[in-house]
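forwarding from the other thread:

> can someone predict this with fructose -6-phosphate?

sure thing
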Amino acid sequence: MKVIVCKNYEEMSVTAAQIVADVMKADPACVLGLATGSTPVGMYKKLIEMNKAGEIDFSGITTVNLDEYYPIAPDNDQSYRYFMNENLFNHVNIDKSRTFVPNGMAADPVAACEAYEETVANVGAAAIQVLGIGQNGHIGFNEPDTALEVRTHVTDLTESTIKANARFFASEADVPTKALTMGIGTILNAKKIIILANGAAKHEAVSKMLAGKLDTSCPASMLNLHSDVIVVCDEAALNG
Ligand code: F6R
């Protein structure tokens, strides 16, 4: 894994946006794998600025998001579909019919996961997959476990994730307890991966990931199986 250490959140966001922009310039019709959460918000702001300045073009881009809560409606302001519209899609020249997020309202969530895996396969491998990392080492909503799922699946969120994400909801009780998420294999299928991490709360997870061992108690450690991963982090995430 290549590690780029940044001074602060701003520098991490600019660095990550530049990496994504370079991929888009190399192939303006590529697939971008995207993440939600607080970490990539600054990167999305930079990408919006670059698009408005005419430096990057989203008109030929397809996007596949990692995950979605379940159940949740797309117009719920805590849904990941809503997040993506608000933080990126509404502000750039992307064709929204080419933006994919797992269906948080599906009557049959297992079938929805199979359909999503098929969509991801049909659009083709992501030229780059953007990831954040959970305090517990999760990527997407692949939570620590004795065994990790390979493909898109329904998952129970752990207590740690529910607590960490409660800050976005009215109360902890309002955080959905399930999610639909790409599996580790789905994520590893991307041609290139960047994983962003800032703040000391991410230090333990980042350390385990960088230890170079495959450890199912830190799902991000599975990224060691991929040959092109860039960790873009700040000093606190790296050194605590
Ligand atoms: C979001 C996602 C999660 C987050 C992780 C970190 O799509 O899949 O794995 O990347 O929970 O979240 P933040 O950035 O809010 O600390």
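The pocket of fructose -6-phosphate is lined by residues 35-39, 66-67, 132-134, 138-141 (CB under 6 Å). thats all i got for now
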